[in-house]
């Protein structure tokens, strides 16, 4: 069973993901249909960041996955040399 701390962390991650999803959805889908002088535009970044931020996050994710695979491969080769 999950402890109270685990449940709290899980709830926090789900809440953060929900807020991020709603913000991004409003930014990409709703904002283009509103007048550019509307006050809600002050809460959002310029529209070109809507592409730049996910691309940068995806590249960072690929980098971390690549480093993790490289580290695991390196460690497994190190252990096979010791056993020989």
TrEMBL record:
Record's bilayer topology term: Multi-pass membrane protein
One biological process term in Gene Ontology: GPI anchor biosynthetic process
Membrane-traversing stretches: 7-29, 49-74
Pfam families found in the cross-reference section: DPM2 (PF07297)
Localisation: Endoplasmic reticulum membrane
Matching InterPro entries: DPM2 (IPR009914)
Keywords: Endoplasmic reticulum, Membrane, Transmembrane, Transmembrane helix
Cellular component GO terms held in the UniProt record: dolichol-phosphate-mannose synthase complex; endoplasmic reticulum membrane
GO molecular function list: enzyme regulator activity
Pathway(s) annotated for this protein in UniProt: Protein modification; protein glycosylation
Function: Regulatory subunit of the dolichol-phosphate mannose (DPM) synthase complex; essential for the ER localization. Regulates the biosynthesis of dolichol phosphate-mannose. Regulatory subunit of the dolichol-phosphate mannose (DPM) synthase complex; essential for the ER localization and stable expression of DPM1. Part of the glycosylphosphatidylinositol-N-acetylglucosaminyltransferase (GPI-GnT) complex that catalyzes the transfer of N-acetylglucosamine from UDP-N-acetylglucosamine to phosphatidylinositol and participates in the first step of GPI biosynthesis. May act by regulating the GPI-GNT complex.
Subunit note: Component of the dolichol-phosphate mannose (DPM) synthase complex composed of DPM1, DPM2 and DPM3; in the complex interacts directly with DPM3. Component of the glycosylphosphatidylinositol-N-acetylglucosaminyltransferase (GPI-GnT) complex composed at least by PIGA, PIGC, PIGH, PIGP, PIGQ, PIGY and DPM2. Interacts with PIGA, PIGC and PIGQ.
Family: Belongs to the DPM2 family.
Protein name: Dolichol phosphate-mannose biosynthesis regulatory protein
């Amino acid at each position: 069973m999950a402890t109270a701390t685990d449940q709290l962390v899980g709830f926090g991650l789900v809440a953060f993901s929900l807020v991020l999803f709603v913000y991004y959805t409003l930014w990409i889908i709703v904002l283009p249909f509103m007048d550019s002088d509307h006050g809600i535009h002050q809460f959002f970044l310029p529209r070109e960041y809507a592409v730049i931020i996910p691309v940068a996050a995806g590249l960072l994710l690929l980098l971390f996955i690549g480093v993790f695979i490289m580290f695991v491969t390196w460690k497994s080769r190190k252990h096979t040399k010791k056993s020989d």
